[in-house]
Amino acid sequence: MTALLVAEYIGIASAATSGFIFAVKRDCDWLGIFIAALLTALGGGFMRDAIVSRPPYSFTHYAPCIIVMAMLFLSAFLRLHKRSDIEKKFLFVTTDAVDLVSFSIVGAIVALQFGYNVFGVVLLALCNGVGGGMIRDVLFNEIPWCLKTGLYATVSIVVGLIYFAMDYAGFTSMFWVMGLFAFGVVFRLAAYYLGWHLPTLQK
Predict the structure, then answer these.
(1) Rounded alpha-carbon distances, angstroms, from residue 90 to 96, 171, 195
(2) Do 100 and 2 contact (CB within 8 A), yes or no?
(3) How many CB atoms lie within 10 A of CB 10?
(4) pLDDT (tens digit, 9 = 90+) per residue, 84-120?
(5) Is 141 left (phi over 0), alpha (psi -120 to 50) or beta?
(6) Are 71 and 16 within 8 A, CB to CB?
(7) Which end of the chain has the lower number of beta carbons within 10 A, N or C?
């Protein structure tokens, strides 16, 4: 799973940067910035591991928390919060898509390891994919961003559902997993740049 692990670490770095920018724009101090970055990057994993009743991965392995802290200092050093519309830059949007898809696949893999059915796999993929951002937004008293933008959470659900089907068919080699990863990233980028979204009810 080396390739997927690299993608997950890139996702953690991207999510930590997103949390850093989110908190700075809301005038948080360094503790608030750290909490926002930590929850954005690792909150989904906390939620996933709580559901399957196992020790949080981020508390039994050093790399996730080290990446979060490194990105905090790097983001501050590069003054990313001073750059206008950085969250709309192609590199940021792409790494955010990597974050979403890699976390969603990991959530689906963990769900299947614990014998979950299709509903459990899809919902654990969703929790792992968007849970960190949702926890952060609730903490900061905002409507979760993933519930009102494009197909963000929908991409996570689709990825989880496809992985369940792949596992059922026996297509779980690295080749197929990375194929799903590429599909998910392209799907998210297409949804972002083409403005795809689910229909809303008229008031």
Answers:
(1) 10, 31, 15
(2) no
(3) 16
(4) 676 677 777 888 888 899 999 999 999 999 999 999 9
(5) left
(6) yes
(7) C
